[in-house]
Each structure stands twice: as C-alpha cells, then as structure tokens.
Specification:
Elongation Factor Tu (Ef-tu), domain 3, Ubiquitin-like (UB roll), six-stranded antiparallel beta sheet, five-stranded parallel beta sheet, 20 strands
Amino acid sequence: MTTTTLPARRRALFHPLTVTGVNRLTEDAIEVVFEIPDELAEDFSYLPGQYVALRTTIEEEELRRSYSICSAQTAGELRIAIKKDFGGLFSTWALESLTAGMQMNVMIPQGTFTTTIDLADQKHYVAIAAGSGITPIMALARSVLAKSPGSRFTLVYANRTAQDVMFLEELADLKDRYPARFSLNHVLSREARSAAVFSGRLDHEKLQILLTELIRPSQVDEWFLCGPFELVQLCRDTLKAAGVPQTEINFELFTTGHPGTVEGSRGRRVVEDPGGANQRITFTLDGRTALVTTPVNARETVLNAALRVRPDVPFACAGGVCGTCRAKLIDGEVTMDENWALEPDEVEAGYILTCQSHPVSDAVTVDYDA
C-alpha cells in the first residue's frame, strides 16, 4: 500500500541549488527546474502542494519569495513556477535574468497545503484556482491521478484569457491521460466560452451554479482553494454556506494584500531607546537563546526584533501566509495581526507567527525549536 502522509514541520534551512532549466509557461510566467544532489535528497523530499522559498540579493537588498512546487515528487529535481507580479522586483528579475547554470539559495520544502494519498482510495478531490494559484494544484492533481487510480480530480481554473493559462499543455495532457478521472473546467473572464458559467468573472453566482449543476458538494471528499485572497475567501464562505465542513477545505494564499516590512536578513531598522519604554524579547533557535530589546513605540514584530541579533531566524513571506516563522509563545503576551498559516489547534497550543506578532507584555519568550 502506498500512502502519502502529512508533513511534519522542518527547520527552514537554505541550500544552494543549481538551475538546470527555465521553461516559458506564458508571456509572464516561467517554470524553473532545480537539480537536487544526492546528498540533499532527504532535505528536499516534498509532498504535493508544498512550497520553497528563494533567497537572492537584488540592488544590494536581500529578497525572499515563496513559490509552490508544481510537480509530483521526482528523483533528482524540483520544479517551481514564477509568475511576474506587477512591480515585483524579485519576479521581474527572475523572468528577465534567471538562466540554466545559475545557483540560488533555496529553502527546504515547507507547507501543509497537501493531503494523504492512498493507493486504495476512491475519493473525489476538487480544486478551485486562479492565475498562479494553479502551481500547487498541478502537483496535487498529478500525484492523485498517478498514485490513486480509484480517485477523481475536478479542477475549476480561472484566468483572464486562454493566453494567461499556465500549464495549458500539461493540463490538456492530464485530461487526455485520465479522461474518466480528471475533469478540467476553464473559466475566462475576458473571453466568451460556449457555456455562460465559464465566461466572465468567477463570482458568487457562478459558484452557486457550479455547486448545483457541475459539482455536488456532498460527493466531494476534499477541497483545495488557491488564488487571490478575495476569491479564496469567497469560495470558503460559499462552501461553508453549502454545508461543507471546514475540515474538508484546504486553502493556500500567496498574499493577503498586506505585505510585511521585514527587510532581508537584517529586519527593518529600529533604534533602541535606553531612556524610553522598552520590551524584552527572548527567543530560542537551534538550542541557542538570545535577548533583544525593542521600543514600545516602534511596535516591532517579534521576527523583526529577532533578526536584528540573529540573521538566521527563519522566515519567507513576512505576510502571515506561509508559516515559516512559526514559534511557540512560552511566556508573555502578544497580538497577532494576520494568521493564514496556523491551524486552530496550533494557536490553541500557543504557537504564533512571529512576523505578525507584537509584544504586549513587558517581556516575551518564544521558542522556534518547539
């Protein structure tokens, strides 16, 4: 019996990897292939739906960006997709400058946007994606269809036009290979299609039609949602109203529209005020404990403060989305601005996203090793 188990969280370490291929997906999206040497095979083992973070220096500024893995587990390689963001410094650089033979610092795979896949399963998986949200869905669909011959996969994929569809040929190949088990439904907002439900913006009305005429929620075992914040939230609310248990809904956000302010491996500049009101942050990482003082009026996050004394503190998005900066609150009190990465049971157990957490008490202690 072949089973894919849910991942345990791993220490977010970076390793230099060589780019072996850069493949054009659309005018503003590429697939990047990294070589995984034998000695790093265990570190870079991954499950479908997980992501990696890339780290590089552009214009004397260290940047980190997270990108989902788009392929099923393949020995010796790892593939991600990068779509150009309007005004995005990292994605613009990647599309214009990234070539085979270059080396990049890549974080070992992270994330819980995945599922168990069993050879004996007879499940129905449904994914709703938009734009670059297709990236982790590709890995999930490929893995489910290849590893679970009794399972089905339905995809609703929204884009502006057919030219904007990432993995267009690969999706068509999956449809040809698994015609009875893979249902592919393109929704185009700026192109007319034969069915009205697949033309125009994917809104509440269209979702209601899809859940009535195409996809019966009672016949679905697990849902995967990935795309812009507004679409993911709309889908979650609609599925909840349709009676779908929250435990059956998986979602992944690439951004909430409120990016963090962490700068590189240094943190944003904060000047301690010896004569003013300060708070003490104590944190443990890799068995070593450090103390940093932060001015109350700076409203600094735990992560930003920690980075000022330990540049190896783990983080990726700094927006409350990826969960890389997760730590356990041992003592004290914090407020957390955003949380799209921690499960309710993790929050109840005392875990926080340090990129979103601000000290409230005079002293705070967190443990990244917990």
